[in-house]
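Hi C.,

You asked whether I'd gotten around to modeling the 396-residue construct. I have! Everything is below, sequence then structure, no commentary in between.
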Amino acid sequence: MTSSARPLLNRRLAEFGTTIFAEMSALATSTGSINLGQGFPDTDGPEEIREAAVRALREGRGNQYPPGPGIPELRTAVAAHHRRRYGLSYDPDTEVLVTAGATEAIAASLLALLEPGDEVIALEPYYDSYAACIAMAGGRRVPVTLRPHHEDTARFRLDLDELRDAVTDRTRLLLVNTPHNPTGTVLTREELRAIADLAVERDLLVVTDEVYEHLVFDDAEHLPLASFPGMRERTVTIGSAGKTFSFTGWKVGWVTAAPGLVTAVRSAKQFLTYVASGPFQYAVAEALALPDTYFAAFRADMQAKRDLLASGLAQAGFEVFRPAGTYFVTTDIRPLGETDGFAFCRALPERAGVVAIPNAVFYDHREAGAPFVRFAFCKRTEVLEEAVQRLKALAD
């Protein structure tokens, strides 16, 4: 035990304790509740991709350290995917980097590109690792809040004037997430063009988290920010196999960017995990080459599950923001006579046998997120049907 009065935890991380996901998952286990909190599927992805990993293991491919940037097969597959889907050309040798999931890609990008005191603008609410990684890099986060709009289809929107006003002489980087977790918003072409124009005008770097690129619904369209004029050379794009192929435990992600940016990110990444997920990299290379029918069927299945849960939540009395992307539904609990998402989520397992996540954990401005609660629909249909039945207790 140290005799110093100084706390053991680095002060940059002092505000980040045990995550709400751990707390709510433990509550789900102790109460026998359906866990719609943490966003991971309850079924595996394609059988042929799982077998590809088994084959790699048996053939001794990836059982030792893979190359630092990732195996050539996967880097080539990532480049081919971007070219086929979006018309973006990346050199697999100099412009693609494989990471231990998207979380490491975010960490390595921010550690590489930020100096202490640099400001990072992030769209609030945001994935909780963003704040921690900015803090570890010594940066200062500047949230720009997505706010609910109540029209024919309720959605959260970006205020472009607020975004522009947030940029100062200390702003180094914009951290963008679309499709957006937790709100389910997919930024429009006009919004993305405005972000791109701002980045070019103010000479900003952009890190864009696009892990839900294949989960867009209805008439929404995912457009990579790197495809806009002036953005190819200043954008670090992050992707992931976990969300697209339902193998979240494999932790295979990637970065695509201009050579100088990839070199910078790799310089940080090599001192984090160095390498990871050897045999799974071979399997993901095969997964990215699956025909378009796989991606269409995956999207259609998730859209049906979205509709099932969103309709059930509306019937239970929530205001529902039907997501245009991701596999999360954000709801407003005020129609149920509630205002505190933390208290609501901690009581929900006893009230209805379901676990959700309070969106306030994704906000710096906690009061802005207080009445919103997130549910995940990446579960088996029968699980969602049972959850909907249980949630009806709230309307009684």
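If it helps when you're writing up: The mean pLDDT is 95.

Thanks,
B.
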